[in-house]
Design goal:
The complex is a heterotrimer of chains A (about 325), B (about 290) and C (about 260).
Chain A lengths: L3 H20 L3 H26 L7 H18 L4 H23 L4 H21 L1 H4 L14 E2 L5 E2 L4 H24 L1 H11 L1 H6 L4 H27 L9 H14 L5 H17 L3 H18 L3 H10 L13
Antiparallel strand pairs in A: 1-2
Helix pairs in contact in A: 1-7, 2-7, 2-10, 2-11, 2-12, 3-4, 3-5, 3-10, 4-10, 7-8, 7-10, 8-10, 11-12, 11-14, 12-14
Chain B lengths: L1 H32 L6 H19 L3 H24 L7 H23 L13 E4 L2 E4 H23 L1 H11 L1 H6 L4 H23 L11 H14 L4 H21 L5 H15 L11
Antiparallel strand pairs in B: 1-2
Chain C lengths: L2 E12 L2 E12 L3 E5 L6 H9 L6 E6 L2 E2 L5 H7 L1 E3 L12 H8 L8 H6 L2 H21 L14 H13 L5 E5 L7 H16 L3 E5 L3 H7 L2 E6 L2 E6 L1 H6 L1 H10 L5
Parallel strand pairs in C: 3-8, 3-9, 6-7, 7-8
Antiparallel strand pairs in C: 1-2, 1-4, 4-5, 9-10
């Protein structure tokens, strides 16, 4: 947003976000907000490879899970400190992203989608069956939260209350937004968009498609891992379901509804889908039905999501079109 | 030892026949419309529930309920094409893929709402095993193999020998040309979707008595069907058959000799291998 | 000066069909060489073989005396060979100027970490990209349209933008595939002027075109293809009188505009 009005809106949102825990004390709602924060990180990271680079990655849940399990295992079995485990686990997730990307990104469009989906299933299967490493279906319990940070003037910041955990997640969310925004607005981000627009043309203007896609994919998986670590540490318990491809589908839905290929879209989509169903207490099956129907309607009539719709209302003429990687 | 091998071989062929039959409808739809119909497995699931419902509640003859399921699902498939996929015909195919994900979620949740999450048995008259050369196989499983072969042959005859089949092939090979000679792309799309879904319905009714019937039963066959058509080549009918049998054998032999725990892994491992080395599949067209 | 591009014995089969057969020719440095021939003569295939979109079955491509046969398109572009496509290819969802900014990316050095930490190098590179984009916009005559979306500008401007996109990569050789396809008589003339303006910058040009008037007017030399093989080569006058050429065209029919 480069209008002055836009800057004030962002500032207002930031202020509200910071004040919230002082006003909202209800644990139930705080929990929803914290989970929204974590899922926003997941959605934003997926948007990098999917929205900005145009590759429909359906393995995001796997990388989220890898980050979660890696950090949990390091903290539980190696007695590692959260603050060390987090970047390491995220790096592991990013590394796996790189490894998987090498073969997977040689495919495109639907092939890439299916291939990544199958990879996700493989990961879930392994996490479920390799009980020696992951405790399998029993799950990992007692995952510690972040250890206290000593303050230079004495005392320390602990992360026992909802409020402090909220600020922790908010902090990482802001960091994620900051990093992703920097990348997207740079020349590197422009090459991502070039791949999305027309991969063959991008190569014709000297862009190394494979390297570019791999970079986007790796960074995306890194931040999925960050989300995973925050989840593991907050919930304290992990089971193989969190690596399941339904996590990938959820992230996809949040992005598509909120607005693919925008910074605000994934956050808006996540907020809508995490807060509203919780507050309305809809049964799981009906929620799923709603998600499915909304996704169908959105992809046909509003493929650029809510943010895209608002942008069009504000003045950019032209039909709603999504530029994907052509297959 | 040899008996074990033949047992696994027969299992593999039966699995392969099942996968081929499910993949057949999928490859037909992809070959003509270039839509990866990711909700295929969930239509398969609804077909199973439909025939189960008829057999259990109305005591319909098994074969009659198979036919009814084919018709009902065929019509539903055509309807879905009209409502969901046709508006997306002129945008990148990946949008159809996402719509299919939405459809998949809707179908699964509707099934949970209607039928509940319980696993149900499909009663059948054909569950007595017969023995051939020391290998045990139930009649139902034999029916799957025979049924798959029958439908493959029927499909080939339909495509090559009937006028309707010819219009489908025309649209597959040259949509603009087909339109010029007066073929309605809309009608052919609906027809193709209808036939593809009906084939899935046939597969479901044949296979359901062997396994259980439940709302998420379609997810694995869906993914395996996609593995099959990627191995065989998207849009190729012989590819679907050969790919299906290959996959069935890989799973049966891998599961039998290496590990049952990780048997699903073989299917997806095969997929990843093919995507990396030969993404166009055995019978697909190449690039560069 | 010498040949900037040499094609030797270039052959490409598709199944049993030879799209290009034993083709050899040179593009002299600084000239405009046109590649003509009836439809299906294999001209775009030749472009694809030069840039690396397709691998030749046989034969060599040399650019500035270095072999580039089988290099990938992004490699040949960095070496200095740029192209346009028969169906105008642009980044339609980006603005005109954004199209060109990303086109200059291949001449910058910044990487991921530069972007993350907004290093001096990243800011310098972005400045250079923007500067180069504006310069090419000015050159191509699209400065007023800079902020418009590529999909919204008129067809003739889109064709100019496609050429601009190739130019912004700082090529030494420009491959133009039917630059006046679908344009009116007036637009042909301004496009021809543009192509000649590109030549004055020292860029060699290899051109595919059907419109004979344009080809005859603008080319220094012409190579004629039929069924993937060279049937004539020479100045426009020579080629115009060549009986094999006339026969090839009378059979297939061609556009005189």
């Amino acid at each position: 947003m480069n209008r002055i009005g836009g800057k004030w809106i962002i500032l207002a949102i930031m202020v509200i976000a910071v004040i919230v825990p002082q006003v909202v004390t209800n644990k139930y709602y705080m929990n929803i907000l914290i989970m929204s924060g974590i899922w926003s990180i997941v959605a934003l990271s997926l948007n990098l490879i999917l929205g900005y680079t145009g590759q429909v990655n359906l393995a995001h849940g796997a990388f989220f899970g890898i980050g979660a399990y890696a950090s949990a295992l390091m903290m539980l079995k190696l007695n590692m400190n959260f603050w060390l485990a987090l970047p390491l686990a995220a790096a592991i997730a990013g590394f796996f992203g790189f490894l998987i990307g090498l073969p997977a990104l040689r495919t495109r469009g639907s092939y890439f989608a299916i291939g990544t989906l199958c990879f996700n299933i493989i990961v879930t299967l392994i996490v479920d069956r390799w009980e020696g490493l992951t405790e399998g279906a029993r799950g990992l319990m007692g995952i510690p939260g972040p250890s206290p940070i000593p303050l230079p003037w004495g005392g320390e910041i602990t992360f026992k209350t909802m409020a402090t955990q909220y600020y922790l997640v908010l902090g990482f969310l802001l960091l994620t937004i900051f990093v992703l925004r920097r990348i997207i607005q740079s020349l590197v981000g422009r090459t991502f968009r070039a791949i999305r627009g027309n991969e063959e043309l991008a190569e014709a203007v000297g862009i190394h498609a494979m390297r570019t896609k791999l970079l986007s994919f790796t960074v995306s998986c890194f931040f999925a891992g960050v989300g995973g670590v925050l989840y593991a540490s907050y919930i304290g318990f992990l089971s193989p379901e969190i690596t399941d491809y339904h996590v990938s589908f959820d992230a996809l839905i949040y992005i598509m509804i909120g607005g693919v290929g925008t910074m605000a879209g994934p956050i808006i989509g996540t907020l809508l889908f995490v807060t509203i169903p919780e507050t309305l207490h809809i049964a799981a099956e009906f929620r799923l039905l709603l998600y499915g129907l909304i996704l169908i309607v959105m992809i046909i009539y509003l493929p650029r999501g809510i943010v895209g719709w608002v942008k069009d209302l504000r003045g950019r003429k032209g039909k709603q079109e999504v530029s994907w990687e052509q297959s | 030892m040899m008996v074990l091998f033949f047992q696994q071989l027969v299992n593999g062929i039966m699995l392969g026949a099942a996968y081929s039959l499910v993949a057949l409808g999928l490859t037909l739809i992809y070959g003509i419309l270039h839509i990866p119909n990711f909700a295929h497995g969930h239509k398969y699931m609804w077909a199973a529930f439909t025939s189960l419902f008829l057999v259990v509640n109305f005591h319909t003859n098994y074969w009659v309920s198979l036919l009814i399921a084919m018709v009902v699902l065929g019509l539903a498939g055509a309807g879905v094409e009209r409502l969901v996929y046709r508006p997306l015909r002129n945008v990148p195919h990946i949008n159809s893929f996402i719509a299919a994900i939405g459809l998949l979620l809707a179908l699964e949740s509707l099934s949970l709402i209607f039928w509940g999450a319980d696993f149900r048995r499909f009663p059948t008259l054909y569950d007595k095993p017969i023995h051939i050369f020391g290998v045990a196989i139930t009649l139902q499983r034999l029916l799957v193999i025979v049924g798959a072969a029958l439908f493959i042959i029927l499909l080939q005859i339909f495509i090559k020998r009937t006028w309707l089949g010819a219009t489908i092939e025309a649209v597959a090979q040259n949509p603009e040309g087909a339109q010029l000679v007066g073929i309605s792309i809309d009608r052919v799309s609906s027809l193709t979707f209808g036939i593809g879904t009906a084939l899935a319905a046939a597969a479901a009714t044949l296979i359901a008595p062997i396994f259980l019937v439940y709302p998420t039963m379609g997810s694995m066959p869906n993914l395996k069907a996609f593995v099959v058509i990627i191995i065989g080549g998207m849009g190729s009918i012989p590819g679907a058959v050969i790919g299906g049998v290959m996959l069935g054998l890989i799973e049966a032999l891998g599961g039998g000799y290496i590990s049952t725990d990780y048997k699903d892994l073989f299917a997806f491992g095969a997929l990843v291998t093919f995507l990396t080395l030969r993404p166009m599949g055995l019978f697909g067209k190449g690039v560069r | 000066m010498g040949a900037i591009l040499t094609v030797q014995g270039l052959t490409r089969f598709f199944g049993g069909l030879a799209a290009v057969m034993d083709l050899s020719f040179e593009v002299q440095s600084g000239e405009i060489l046109s590649l003509i021939g009836p439809n299906g003569a294999g001209k775009t295939t030749v472009f694809n073989l030069i840039t690396g979109t397709l691998l030749p079955t046989q034969g060599k491509v040399l650019f500035q005396d270095h072999e580039i046969t089988g290099s990938r398109p992004y490699e040949t572009t960095v070496l200095g060979v740029a192209r346009t496509f028969q169906t105008t290819s642009l980044f339609y969802d980006e603005t005109v100027v954004d199209n060109l900014i990303v086109g200059y990316r291949c001449r910058t050095r910044m990487g991921f970490w530069d972007a993350l930490f907004q290093t001096g190098r990243s800011r310098e590179d972005e400045r250079r990209c923007r500067q180069k984009a504006e310069e090419i916009l000015e050159f191509i005559g699209l400065r007023e349209r800079g902020a418009e979306l590529a999909r919204n500008i008129p067809q003739e401007s889109q064709k100019r933008l496609a050429i601009a996109l190739a130019l912004v990569t700082e090529p030494k050789l420009l491959l133009l595939d039917e630059p006046v396809g679908g344009l009116t008589e007036e637009e042909n003339i301004s496009m021809m002027a543009l192509i000649q303006k590109v030549q004055t910058r020292g860029i060699s040009i290899l051109l595919i075109e059907h419109k004979m008037k344009v080809v005859m007017n603008i080319s220094d030399r012409i190579v004629v293809l039929n069924y993937g093989q060279k049937i004539a080569e020479g100045s426009p006058q020579e080629v115009g009188r060549n009986s094999a050429v006339i026969e090839a065209y009378l059979g297939a029919g061609y556009s005189e505009t």
